């Protein structure tokens, strides 16, 4: 065992007694059986709160070996099966080399597949569901150390697909794939805020994936990254919703290496354009705090105006905000459950106390729109607030309690938000 350390950006120090570094599924099973108390999976550490922490033992899954494989038994539903700890960028490159692709990616290719899907991580696009919507099969180690499998048609699958680490340690995943495709990324500047407030859904729907970057107080949004499918003879417009296409050059949003960003102005494979950052470079800014809220797309203009009214309070502590679209889904703990969604993301400077003070203000402003928080990022929600905006919370909780009746995978985060019932951990070996 070794010291558990911190999350990627240093926003949380793990309180676990130790870490077991598993390199096989059998070692994960043995670690769960041998642990004297609670256990949790540890991936690439790209969370910002205590969602992945435990007062017991952390078990890493990023070192589990194995080669992905494609299953085309059903040609209408091809899938890839892969170790759960693989990074998105690594899986994406493997798929691309074989002519396959995922429907979308998050902004970072460095994060693990299991961690991303367990928290409902997403990219952008009104027709693109969060990463968890691609799942067709989940293999996990349960509280007894037994290996279990649950498939897409199982009635409990909507609970575990965005399962927030509440029921077991995921070891292998199967996802729907499609033939590879190319994407062109273009950067636009000068979109007036009044246009965005009136036409947010239309702007976000005007390409395969659209990301809007802002600091809230400017007259025009900072940048828009428009990621469009490549068609013969099609060229991106020079003027778009009042914004102007930027020549290829420095597109940095915050201090950092512009070479870390994926290319714009030139078509390329999906895995090299849909993420914002290159796998070979340090992800994002590094020293930062992240927050994100999900609101109904139909209320996008009003929700954005409510946040913009707090702009003077927000901007001293903000690096940048990003606005994205997520298609509605049927996964019970997804931020986009049951509604087409606008995701409002904040990348904060490392100012923890001012940010903590701001979050309740932002959440009050977004409360009329039933905003939901991203599970892996900072927020100020308590259990009552989570229950108010999560229609299937009780159903998901019942599934987790059934799968883990002894509470081996319970932690403070899950009980604080009402996702699991608190209970004393098992203390025998």
UniProtKB/TrEMBL annotation:
Sequence ranges assigned to domain FAD-binding PCMH-type in this UniProt record: 12-180
GO cellular component, one term: membrane
PROSITE patterns membership: FAD_PCMH (PS51387)
UniProt cross-references to InterPro entries, sorted A to Z: ALO_C, FAD-bd_PCMH, FAD-bd_PCMH-like_sf, FAD-bd_PCMH_sub1, FAD-bd_PCMH_sub2, FAD_lactone_oxidase-like, Oxid_FAD_bind_N, Vanillyl_alc_oxidase_C-sub2
SUPFAM superfamilies named in the record: FAD-binding/transporter-associated domain-like
Sorted UniProt keywords: Oxidoreductase
Highest taxon of source: Bacteria
Gene Ontology terms for molecular function: D-arabinono-1,4-lactone oxidase activity; FAD binding; L-gulono-1,4-lactone dehydrogenase activity
Keyword RNA-binding attributed: no
Protein's UniProt name: D-arabinono-1,4-lactone oxidase
Species this protein is from: Demequina lignilytica
């Amino acid at each position: 065992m070794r010291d558990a350390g911190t999350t990627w950006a240093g926003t949380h120090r793990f309180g676990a007694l130790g870490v077991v570094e598993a390199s096989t599924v059998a070692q994960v099973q043995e670690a769960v059986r041998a642990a004297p108390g609670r256990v949790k999976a540890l991936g690439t550490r790209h969370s910002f709160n205590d969602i992945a922490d435990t007062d017991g033992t952390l078990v890493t899954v990023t070192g589990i070996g194995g080669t992905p494989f494609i299953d085309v038994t059903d040609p209408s539903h091809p899938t890839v099966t892969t170790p759960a700890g693989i990074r998105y960028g690594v899986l994406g490159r493997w798929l691309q080399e074989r002519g396959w692709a995922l429907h979308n990616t998050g902004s970072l290719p460095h994060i693990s597949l299991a961690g991303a899907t367990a928290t409902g991580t997403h990219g952008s696009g009104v027709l693109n569901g969060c990463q968890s919507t691609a799942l067709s099969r989940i293999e996990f180690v349960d509280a007894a150390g037994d290996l279990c499998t649950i498939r897409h048609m199982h009635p409990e699958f909507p609970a575990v697909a965005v399962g927030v680490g509440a029921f077991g340690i995921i070891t292998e995943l199967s996802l729907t794939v499609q033939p590879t495709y190319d994407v062109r990324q273009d950067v636009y500047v000068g979109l007036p805020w009044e246009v965005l407030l009136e036409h947010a859904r239309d702007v976000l729907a005007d390409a395969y994936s659209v990301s809007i970057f802002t600091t809230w107080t400017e007259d025009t949004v900072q940048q828009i990254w428009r990621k469009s499918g490549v068609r013969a003879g099609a060229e991106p417009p020079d003027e778009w919703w009042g914004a102007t296409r930027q020549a290829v050059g420095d597109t940095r949003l915050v201090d950092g290496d512009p070479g870390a960003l994926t290319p714009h102005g030139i078509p390329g494979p999906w895995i090299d354009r849909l993420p914002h950052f290159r796998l070979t470079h340090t992800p994002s800014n590094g020293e930062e705090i992240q927050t994100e809220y999900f609101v109904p797309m139909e209320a996008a203009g009003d929700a954005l105006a409510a946040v913009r009214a707090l702009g003077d309070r927000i901007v001293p502590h903000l690096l940048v905000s990003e606005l994205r679209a997520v298609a509605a889904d049927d996964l019970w703990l997804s931020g986009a459950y049951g509604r087409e969604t606008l995701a409002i993301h904040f990348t904060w400077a490392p100012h923890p106390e001012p940010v903590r003070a701001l979050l309740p203000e932002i959440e009050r402003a977004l409360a009329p729109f039933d905003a939901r928080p991203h599970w892996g990022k900072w927020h100020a929600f308590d259990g009552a607030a989570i229950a108010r905006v999560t229609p299937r919370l009780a159903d998901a909780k019942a599934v987790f309690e059934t799968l883990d009746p002894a509470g081996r995978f319970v932690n403070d985060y899950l009980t604080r938000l009402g996702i699991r019932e608190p209970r004393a951990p098992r203390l025998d070996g």
